Amino acid sequence: MTEQELLENGWEKETLTLHIQEYDPMLATNNKMRRLSYELDNSFTSDQIALIERFLREVNRRFPNIKLCATGTGYIQSEKDAEESIQDETVEA
């Protein structure tokens, strides 16, 4: 299915959320990880999401104490369970 067909059939884009995690040995907690999540928007195209994910992989490769990831890169039907979401990779642009 194309993105347009999914939208016409009641599917909605998930909100793209970026997550950053940093290892900090100086933290007073046992976990030693500092975390931040930031919700962006649900209007990103497949190509834009792919570009963002390439950037995240490059940051992860170059900075060993920092890990980035993205969630919300697929489609969901609001009345269905999260297990029934379609990930962005399966959608034709």
What does this structure look like?
The protein is an alpha+beta fold. It has one domain. Helices cover 25% and strands 26% of the residues. The protein contains 2 helices and 5 strands. The strands form 2 sheets. It has a 3-stranded antiparallel beta sheet. It is elongated. It starts with a helix and ends in a 17-residue tail after the last strand.
- In which range does the helix fraction lie? 10-25%
Counting DSSP H or I runs of 4 or more residues, the number of helices is 2
* Count of discrete domains: 1
Shape from CA axes? elongated
Q: What oligomeric assembly is this protein in? A: single chain
**Rounded mean pLDDT score:** 83
How would you classify the helix and strand content by structural class? alpha+beta
Strand order of the largest sheet: 3-2-4
Radius of gyration over C-alpha positions, nearest whole angstrom:
16 Å
Largest sheet: 3 strands, antiparallel
Low-confidence stretches: 88-93
Strand content: 25-35%
Measured distance between first and last alpha carbons:
9 Å
Number of distinct beta strands: 5
Order of helices and strands: HEEEHEE
Element layout with pairings:
Elements: H1 3-8, E1 12-13, E2 17-23, E3 33-39, H2 46-62, E4 66-71, E5 75-76
Antiparallel strand pairs: 1-5, 2-3, 2-4
